[in-house]
Amino acid sequence: MDRRRFLSIAGAGLATVVATKSFAGDDRPARLVFVHGRSQQGLDPDVLKASWLDTLKQGAAKNNRTLPPQLDVAFPFYGDKLDDFTRRFEIPLTTDIQTKGAGVDADFLSFQAEVAEQMRSKAGISDAEVQEQFGTNPTEKGPQNWAWVQAIIRAIDRNAGSVSQSFIEKFMRDVYLYTSQPGVQDAIDNLVAEKIDESPCVIVGHSLGTVVAYHILRTDRRALKVRAFITVGSPLGIRAIRDRFRPIGFPAKIKAWYNAFDPRDVVALYPLDGSSFPINPSVENYASVLNATDNRHGIVGYLNDPQVAKHILDALGA
To answer: Which Gene3D superfamilies match (predicted)?
Structure first.
């Protein structure tokens, strides 16, 4: 389906009338839209939505507050579709090149190299630590050498203390798929945009979901009314990812943008500030999340943060 035509009709009839407080200037009730990240394939979206809500309730309780009793919540699910694309395109990870003899995708390798180098730099991982992982390999160092790129990723794995090499490589692959491969972006955007209508809403995006939601909010032609865009664990500040959406800008359809991250979350090390994501008006950043998940990146370690929960509740008018 043509994306421009789809976006002009998407969302009709999706909202349920509920008893939540309305936004200023619009007497319709607010909706809460959750946009998940990667690696959700094969999971039950209803179970996932319930988990997000339960965790948000924990964050609300830390503020002695509760969610609206009949909150309308949308959970657009694209996990299986993304998984279909990963199998269809068969983009080799550096571990696949090493263990399976897979061919090198030069464009993806270049993307990996740039993302990995920025992660390494921000995480404070030294050249010596990367060299230790590269070892005595006789091949030339550099972004076009898969072994060198793998050494950077392995150094992040060994020294950043939160994420595995497999997680980093698959995260890079999925972002690359979404931002570069024909048809992937439209297919995923359509699934998510279908659950966002023209009624007032609050959008909460996590990880890759922040990238997807940002792109929709910048390109959707409908008269969306987004009271707040709240991003957690977002990689949009990584230059190699940010530059795929140039020219970047503050989505006109949102009133406020709040970005929260754990400074130990290697996916979200770069705040969306004037240096990493220069837009006007600027994004409000919160860098004090203490994400208790093993990789410091999991959604449950973000939604139960009292400040994150407060901003969601305030935007809902709860």
So the answer is: alpha/beta hydrolase (3.40.50.1820)
Cβ proximity of 286 and 190 under 8 Å: no
Angle at 182 between CA 167 and CA 254, to 5 degrees: 75
Report whether 14 contacts 197 (CB < 8 A). Answer: yes
Question: For residues 4 and 14, what is the distance between their CA atoms, to the nearest angstrom?
Answer: 19
Of 228, 192, 238, nearest to 45 by C-alpha is 192
Sole residue written with tokens 């140039």:
246
> Which tokens sit at 45?
């979206």
Note down the domain range covering 139.
Answer: 85-180
Q: 253 and 305, same structural domain?
A: yes
Instruction: Give the dihedral sign, CA 296/315/255/190.
Output: positive
243, 271, 93: which is closest to 168 by C-alpha? 93
Last-in-domain residue among 163, 180, 197? 180
What does the angle CA 239 – CA 52 – CA 25 come to, to the nearest 5 degrees?
80
Which residues lie across from 228 on neighbouring strands? 202
**Residue type for position 302:** Y
Residues 136-173: tens digit of each pLDDT: 776 666 666 788 889 999 999 988 767 888 899 999 99
Query: Computed over its alpha carbons, how large is the radius of gyration of the chain?
Result: 20
Distance (Å, rounded) from C-alpha 257 to C-alpha 213?
12
Bond prior to 29 in cis (omega within 30° of 0): no
Give the pLDDT band (50/70/90) at residue 106.
confident
- Distances in whole angstroms, Cα of residue 193 to Cα of each of 108, 116, 131, 201: 27, 30, 44, 13
Q: Say yes or no: 38 and 163 in one domain.
A: no
Counted domains in the chain:
2
- Sign of the dihedral defined by the CA atoms of residues 195, 197, 202, 206, in that order: positive
CA distance 74 to 147: 42
Phi/psi for 154 (5° steps) reads: -65, -35
* The model scores a pTM over 0.70: yes
